[in-house]
Amino acid sequence: MSALDLPLIFTGLMGFAILAYVVLDGYDLGVGILLPAATPCEQNIMVSSIGPFWDANETWLVLGIGLLLVAFPVAHGMVLTALYLPVLVMLIGLILRGVAFEFRVKAQGWHRELWNWLFGCGSIIAALAQGLMLGLYVVGFAHGVGDYLFAAVVALGVAGGYVMLGGAWLIARTEGTLQHSATRWTRWGQIGVALGLLLVIVGTALENSTIREKWLQLPMLLLLLPLALIAVWSWVWHATRRLEHRLAGSSCANLSKHEWMPFFGAVSIYVIAFLGLGYSLFPYIVVARLTIWQAAAHPSSLRFVLIGALIVLPMILAYSVFSYYVFRGKVRE
Amino acid sequence: MENTDALWLARAQFGLNIAFHILFVSISLALSWILVYLRIQYARTGKARWRSAFNLWTRVFALTFAVGVVSGIVMSFQFGTNWPGYMNTVGNIAGPLLAFEVLTAFFLEAAFLGVMLYGFNRVPGWVHVGATLLVAIGTTVSAFWILALNSWMQTPVGYTHDGHELISASWLQVIFNPSFPLRLVHMLIASGVTAAFVVAGLSALRLLRAPSDKAAYISWRTGAVMAAVLAPAQALVGDLHGLSTLEHQPAKVAAMEALWETRAQAPLVLFATVNQAEQRNEHVIALPGFSSLILRHRFDGEVKGLKEFAPDIPPVAPVFYAFRVMVGLGVLMIALALWGVLRTRHGRQPSRVMLRIFALFAFSGWAAVVAGWMVTEIGRQPWLVYGMLRTKDAVGPISPARLGASLTAYLIVYGILLLSYIVVITHLARSGLHASSELHKDKALSQASAS
Hints:
Mean pLDDT of chain A: 86
Number of domains of chain B: 1
Largest sheet of chain A: 2 strands, antiparallel
Number of strands of chain A: 2
Radius of gyration of chain A: 20 Å
Oligomer: heterodimer
Largest interface: A-B, 59 and 64 residues
Number of strands of chain B: 8
Mean pLDDT of chain B: 86
């Protein structure tokens, strides 16, 4: 057992939880951000489409933070105190969103309008704050003007990514005019993603020597990941455009097998970008200051949690799949 | 000076958050089991009243759960932002317990909550009953882990030092630490009583408006009977819990009793104003010897006074007053619940006066729960982990200005949320649900999905 590299395993687990979070809560935050762009009737359908899932989606954030706390307690304190303000803003965004979700169902008239508005606001606030957190994390919590600018760009990219995921989710789960609008929304999001990624890659290459050296160690990867990103990105762009035209051309033939494709494409963009990020930062848990082995908790604690996680995680995945299976198909009310 | 400000603000912020969180958790924990009962009754009898009662309280549950989840997420972050020293010192113990809560409880609740709320017409009846049950199991497992951790902070055992780190020597000892079993039972029953009074109180409001609403009547009855069983049981468990506290945390008990000097025939102070600076009580009304009788079960039993524990004396006034609020409310709640149930035996209807009193007491459990937690948490001070880590040594480097600003933000947001919550669930319960139209909609939906 002692032969196992526990910190590495926990980095993997934490990475998985965070990736699951940004993809899963990403689509429902995206739907929230898009809410103000829709008609009242569409808004109800949009919220219904994420109703059974948002709670479990947000739990991945708690797991990610929980694993950071369990496996790297020192880093947990360092990261969260350094990110105090964006974390506070994100939490308030998530609070507004989570409760607006339940309150809006029970409200009528202008009350419902107000909760809808808070739902949208909370979503965009949470998305931007998360992007800001990621940006500041990557620059190692430096405080220069350039660092904040960088973080702001990342924030925009992350919010754009959520819009892309949310739009693609709506393409898969809705029909009619809402689905038609969603094909456009997805591409708005893609523009944000493209700008964000481009600026981040160029900015990092120019300014961050640690990460640049990391990239130069493996030129193949440096070439492959961006190429893969560009390929998937353009493919999603074309797929949504094609769908938009078909939907506009009425008479619609059977589209169902294409409707999930943009979503899977959008998820792939996230996965590829995440892998690139993971490679760039490894082995640091706090950039340039603390590696995963330096920050790791005692092996006795890690072993205890690992055994539990290996038993429970498959069950979590199984009943998550069950939940998505129960609520499969188009949302109609 | 700055450090004391930061400590005070960090505590105020965390205290506000944890108190806000417990309001919703103390309802949802037991309400989930009430839902299981209502759902099974519907499955058994097929009567519309059970279905509409289930529907109504599911909506209340969804709202309660949502506020509980978001305030819980805030807490998972505040461990790091407010108390980095806590994780640095006991992270090897606290981390795994919190991780197990997420792994074994949060996902279970969240996933099956979706099925419970939106799946009535999408899954077979038994799956829906099962989902409702799993949500309840999830909330209870969650309470298990978090109370294991809290109890360990009160009575830390089962650990050892490995060089400079504190690690677990036996996880079984850590989890089943001395104060855990009674604290868990005390909290589960507290939640049961709180939820029972919410259900009975809000149903009473509905009955005042629509006396013939059958769903409201069965809800009221369910809540009242539950309260009548659990509230007296709580008195018993609370007494045992107090005795265990006397054994493990005598300073806390001395603060609860505002007893400064060690003495035999210790008086039971019914009321007093506490003067912490001069370490004495003023305006005392006391029953001589009764504190010894309660704690030692003999009039001449010796009880340790606060001065024995100097300089580690907790703030006495809040612990002393909060304890009296908890016990006082508990006694009133026992009386009300027993009166309500005994007067409505053999199908007799509750009088309007009784319904009004139940409505007045709808949220009384909240006050009792928060007071109880104040006793146990403030009573542990100045320790964060009893005898091991002082709260002041765990506070983070966040500036008082930031803490103050974020505390204000939380106060505003939580104030609005609490108000909205009370308004919305009161409105929901008062207007009730029209069983016939709901069932009609169900039938239409199931036909649509079948075709």
